[in-house]
């Protein structure tokens, strides 16, 4: 997994997107499905599971702890749960690849185990902050260490008894930290409560309910009870709105486009990108709303439109946190100026997304001024050029779609990690009308 191939995307300028598109399963939900199924009692089955490198790493980690995981095969996965106390100590460090979600959520589960474990990751993950989870876990009595810089590897020692329930106010809006603590709360005595000043994605809460162990939610306070049990459950995992976002962007900026994205998760804690692009004037319509696996789902129709620059409301930032690479490209194609503030978390994602996008947009001839917590972008004519994705899947896909509005070819380097969240992106985008060629092995 850490062995990276050098994949380059070459995208010819212009074109439009057309047709019906089905994006792969939701990454956040797929990770959580493996984790909760593994510590549940009985079997769980899912369809629509994301067969990306990140979620496969999570499945592999649980196999290394004695859990039988069949698949994923054509999006189907079957997991034989071992119960909250049934995991066995892994004989080697667990490699979480590129995934912050996997490492932070798993730390919550491992903190409650009666065995030692260690979590490692690739070069990008090894630079990401872990003290945001280790500090509150220590307050719960966990014995857990990071490297001196607060980064991986994360070493977790046998708990030596139940964790202590705490009440914790999140200092950063982070669903990963919230979820880590709720999962650790399953191993604590009493009620572990997380107070989130602003709402973040609530997939853990929804899935705990589906597995028969609902959290208590009142106002901004979410509490998990220790000493319970989870029951295996079956689930249909919706398409990932974070992957759909690139097609929403592409169809919005490429004249003559009209796409229908089928079966996409539209949980309101994830739809910030739809709200932001709609404020910019995008033509996005949700059709056929329904529910699957306790999550709202819809088909999303997008037609091209003229976008205008806006000041992005800060309240929407956590609800679109993974979609800013796409939002920044939309801003580059819009008339006037777009300002993003309150988004300093973008600096500690798979790459520093403010810097990576600012540098790439400038290279393509767009006036972009990065700030500590966001960016100011003046929409304008986009040249072609060669940009560096910095090994960040979402930077790679955002710049691929930018070519639709560019005057010359856009070459994007270091795209192998697109496979972490969106295997098959290049061929799917090509089938919808993007003139993209992948050199290397992006499947
Ligand atoms: C995720 C939460 C977000 C997001 C990440 C997935 C999750 O991170 O950026 O891609 O599945 O909980 P934070 O909660 O740290 O903002």
Task: Give the C-alpha Rg.
Answer: 21 Å
Small-molecule binders here are:
shikimate-3-phosphate
The unreliable regions are none
Reported for the largest beta sheet, the result is:
4 strands, mixed
Helix and strand composition category = alpha/beta
Task: Indicate the proportion of strand residues.
Answer: 25-35%
Q: What secondary-structure arrangement, pairings included, does this model have?
A:
Layout lengths: L7 E4 L6 E4 L5 H12 L2 E7 L5 H11 L4 E6 L2 E7 L11 E2 L4 H11 L6 E4 L10 H9 L4 E2 L8 E3 L6 E2 L2 E3 L5 H11 L2 E2 L1 E5 L7 H8 L5 E3 L2 E5 L9 E2 L4 H13 L4 E8 L6 H8 L3 E10 L2 E9 L20 H9 L4 E4 L12 H11 L3 E5 L2 E5 L6 E4 L4 H10 L7 E4 L4 H4 L3 H8 L3 E4 L4
Parallel strand pairs: 2-17, 3-16, 6-7, 10-12, 11-13, 23-24
Antiparallel strand pairs: 1-24, 1-25, 3-5, 4-5, 7-9, 8-9, 13-15, 14-15, 17-19, 18-19, 20-22, 21-22
Helix pairs in contact: 1-2, 1-3, 1-6, 3-5, 4-5, 7-9, 7-11, 9-10, 9-11
Give the structure's gist in a few sentences.
28% of the residues lie in helices and 26% in strands. The chain is of the alpha/beta class and 443 residues long.
Textual characterization of the structure:
The protein has helices at 27-38, 53-63, 100-110, 131-139, 175-185, 203-210, 241-253, 272-279, 324-332, 353-363, 393-402, 418-421, 425-432, and strands at 8-11, 18-21, 41-47, 68-73, 76-82, 94-95, 117-120, 144-145, 154-156, 163-164, 167-169, 188-189, 191-195, 216-218, 221-225, 235-236, 258-265, 283-292, 295-303, 337-340, 367-371, 374-378, 385-388, 410-413, 436-439. With 443 residues, it is of the alpha/beta class. A hairpin with a 2-residue loop joins β14 (216-218) and β15 (221-225). It is globular and about 60 Å long. 56% of the residues are buried. The structure holds shikimate-3-phosphate. Shikimate-3-phosphate binds at residues 28, 101, 174-176, 179, 200-201, 321-322, 345.
